[in-house]
Amino acid sequence: MSAPPPEPSSALDQLRRQLKTPRAAGREYEFPPIRNFILDLMAEGRRKNIVHLFFQADITDLLSKSAAGTLNGASVTSVVASSLAREVEQFRDFNAYRVGKSRMVVFNDVDLSFTVEREVDGAVLPVPYIVRAANRKSAEQIHRELQAAKVAPIGAAGPMSALEKAFFLLPRFIRRIVWFFIRRDPWIFKQLAGTVGVTSIGMFAPGAVVGQPITPMTLTLCIGSTEKKVVMRDGVPVERAFIHLNLSVDHDIIDGGPLMRFVEALRKRLGEGGAAD
């Protein structure tokens, strides 16, 4: 005969057993304080009414230029970023920020805010680097700046200045007070964070991949992966290369119509090989 089923234990008994259960094996270490940079950006981004638009752009001609060596050493990411800055210069409201509740400021310079993966105090993190006035720089100049940012000393003239590093090591309640004033002054925000965000994840994964960032910027472009597709051209199937992109915009400032016109202009520019003007 089989043994009778055990009597159901009470919630108190179950709680006692849970408390006596040994902890699972693992490694415990200190949370890197410098990651406060990421936590703060996420918190500020959640304050915005951000909408996202996923799209693809044909970059076959751009890749052909790269393979032929006619980009003067600029990477595809730098060409896409330069193209973005040139289009933002044409669509001025994409470079705007609110001043209080009743006014806006539209900046002349498009300051592109990149994230560069670096080791900071033993932790590998994406740290900020701003390419100032990117709308007046070539893709090659942007590329050289980004390459320099990957090796420049942290806390010096490169990514994450000494002031920024010291700020993100402050207690959270102090940082929240400072952010209260930063988010209300777009001139200070521009100096510290730039005006347009660019993040690139395409080099980390094959296939169709693109991100959807949490961002405090009016406009952020996430550059995803590149994949080849067969499309019809003049009734003939041809293989073309497409890059996956995502635009994240502050809906308080940018509406759907202007966003779609901006996307079409950016796609056209990239389809023609990028940048120029």
Can you walk through the features of this model?
The protein is globular, with a radius of gyration of 24 Å. The model has no long low-confidence stretch (mean pLDDT 88). It has helices at 11-20, 36-45, 60-68, 76-90, 139-149, 162-168, 172-182, 186-193, 256-271, and strands at 50-58, 96-99, 103-106, 112-120, 123-131, 196-200, 219-233, 236-250. The protein has a six-stranded mixed β-sheet with strand order 1-8-7-6-4-5, with helices on both faces. Helix 4 (76-90) packs across helix 5 and helix 4 (76-90) crosses helix 9. It has one domain (32-271): Chloramphenicol Acetyltransferase. It is α/β, with parallel strands linked by helices and 277 residues long.
List keywords for this structure.
8 strands; Chloramphenicol Acetyltransferase; 6-stranded mixed beta sheet; alpha/beta; 277 residues; 25% strand; 9 helices
Topology:
Layout (H helix, E strand, L loop, with lengths): L10 H10 L15 H10 L4 E9 L1 H9 L7 H15 L5 E4 L3 E4 L5 E9 L2 E9 L7 H11 L12 H7 L3 H11 L3 H8 L2 E5 L18 E15 L2 E15 L5 H16 L6
Parallel strand pairs: 4-6, 6-7
Antiparallel strand pairs: 1-8, 2-3, 4-5, 7-8
Helix pairs in contact: 4-5, 4-9
